[in-house]
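#struct-queue
[09:14] JT: dropping the first one here, sequence first, then the structure tokens:
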Amino acid sequence: MAYTCFSFQAIHMNLAAKTLFPALAAVALMLSGCAHKPTRPTPDQTMMGPKGGPGGDNLAFSNVASTLPDGLAQRDPNDAFGPDGQLRGKLDAVYFDYDRFDIKPAERTKLQAAAQYLKDHADQRLLLEGRCDWHGTAEYNLGLGDRRANAVKKYLGTIGVPADKIETVSKGSLEAVKEADEATAAKDRRVELVILKK
């Protein structure tokens, strides 16, 4: 009887050893793998610019640019056309006085720069978006936006920009800030110069 009891204990211990040791080995293997996790760099180690090491942004861009094919290396990184084929913000908007569509002398240099840009980029065109502040009715502002866009188109024509390089549209006060103060309203009285791919 003692022999039988002993043999059951031996079998039980043998089974426990067969299941326990592989489980312990798997846990030990997992723990040893976790110990070698790489450390992540801090933001200042990956940042470009003065804190990112010698040379900063310009050096990093020039190194990348030097490996690009001719033509791509000379592209301005800010010249990014959206999926709609438009480039906004490259050319300065032209601003107008309240309820006016005549181009102020101070704004004409922006249009001269736009004309030069089109001369240098023959594969591109301009979309002139006439905009108004929140004052007045929607219908009146659509008409005023149209007059502003066409005044810009006419001026560009007088300095040599062909009419087929220019499109106009009036946004009126559709995107104007409602009940805006004067400083904000003045920013809404403009013609946006949007560059289009030809």
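[09:21] JT: and here's the second one, same format:
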Amino acid sequence: MAEVIAVSCNSSHGIAKPNVEAIRLIAGHGVEGDAHYGETVQHRSRVAQNPDQPNLRQVHLIHAELLDELAGQGFQVAPGDMGENITTRGVDLLALPEGTELALGDAARVRITGLRNPCKQLNGHAPGLMNAVLDKDTDGTLIRKAGVMAVVLEGGDVRAGDTITVHLPEGEQRALAPV
């Protein structure tokens, strides 16, 4: 069963987000009270480039299976430590195509826009963490494992224990690319 195992929010910019009992998703904006909440881009480096671009990174999701993998490599990373709002288990987030919709709990619904491009701030949590969430396939293509980004289609409260239902897009499916 696919489920939410933790939710996290931080009103300040920074890498880690503390776990909370529930987060409220607001359609078209993201996680209420989070530093990345808004219709337009909120990531500081992207705001500097173009503050008017749409916010395709309203919600950050990471699969708990990545945390398990990192623990096997000696890293101590808990839900929220890598800046995600929603930590999932039982859904292969990285394999989902662009445009996949996830129903979270009773009401919330998000659309996956792309892969998170990990940044050097991860090394502030643990030296080498950024490289640990990057890999290469047999062709040498970079694989980003630090989760996916999404926009909020339908608002609602999300909490640990909520179920996740995956709705694949119809028609041609495109692999996720960094956003």
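[09:30] RK: nice, looked through the second one.
[09:31] RK: Helices lie at 44-49, 64-72, 122-125, 129-132.
[09:31] JT: good to know. DSSP finds four helices and 13 strands in the chain.
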